[in-house]
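[Automated response] Your request has been received and processed.

Submitted sequence:
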Amino acid sequence: MKGEEIDIFLEFIEDPAGTLTIEEISALPPDLFSSIKGGNYTLGYSDSAFWFKIEVENPREKPVPWVIESRYPLLDYITAFIPEDGGFRAIASGDRLPFSTMPYGYHNFVADIITEPGNAVYFFRIQSQGSIFVSLKAWDPESIILNLYSELSLLWLFIGIMLALFLYNLFIFISSKDKIYLALILFIATVTIFIFIHTGLARKHLWPDSTWWVNHSHPFFLFLSIASVLYFTRLFLNTKQNLKKTDFILKGILTLSLFLSIATLLTPYSISTRLSTLITILTSIILIFFTMLPMFAVNKRLALYYTISWMLFPMGTFLLALRSYGIIPDNTLTGWGYMIGIGLGTCMLSIAVADKINLLRKEKEHALLSLKESEERYRLFFETAHDGIMFLIDDMPVYANKNMIKMSGFSEEQFYQKTIYD
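Generated structure:
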């Protein structure tokens, strides 16, 4: 078994009060359980506990070891009940418990199983204030280890790329003091930390025992990421001048996101995580339909850069948010699209910002050259004029052409020592 999706074989029952025990659940008639259709299953947001069961048949004559993995590390509580000695062995964890409860120290929940010849029924209990997302895969022991190495390699590669981009733009900001680079490094920092949290790596490496912060850090950094995205957008596209109405909206959502980032520390997680998802959807819609598209009528070059950089990111986060509410199923696009979009988008943004700065520098150089040429033409006209021309400050001549000095009857040195009344 190499990551076989087993969601389609699951059956579930809702426990609104969250008080049923494994003994009570295992004794229920099979017709009380509902079948899951369509693969990876999302129940959206709910205060209920949900019980899932799956029946497994081992046609071999010897026991088969295998592993079940939950692919969503943000569940508050998840418990696997393995049949053993006439009862059940419970394997419990979740981000409301210390990381030390995670089997084998893996950032995703796993349960090792040995299925004896014949049939066996396994139960899972899931309860969470966040999105209740069920994505279970079956592995043989060797395959899950290989997958762990490859998956962690990709995750750390992504973190490494984002860190390199952060340092690159930080050095440019220190030397240039340009605010647009400050906005870009704020975006890279907040989004990278958010992804570190979303994948469960922050819980493992940064705050393994802080269960309160494990939950609240997710919406906190999501709101900060939204704010940094909007701050960068306003500077890069100069929406204050180019898209005045849109700028007002962006400024409003930016302020709201900063306020809500603080509010997440004071409100229940169930409320803050739903608000963060709604604001993510709203921001994605505004960036696509009220910022990217109208900008093409103002500055096609900036609009094209911005669209290429950001299209995958808001679309990825939009799909991620829809998955959280159970509107669409989980797949590679909805699960990893936001990370791919952020990585590619950030690289493109670094190029776009550098191109914009170079373009502004060339425009400035062109303007200075034009000004210098204009000054030369004016100076030539001034010096060759047949009339006397001079400039005064406080009744004292500060500049005069040759004819003016000649008409005055003074030498050039004497002329500049006189007043107009002399």
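Summary generated for your ticket: The mean pLDDT is 85. The radius of gyration is 33 Å.
If you did not submit this request, please reply to this message.
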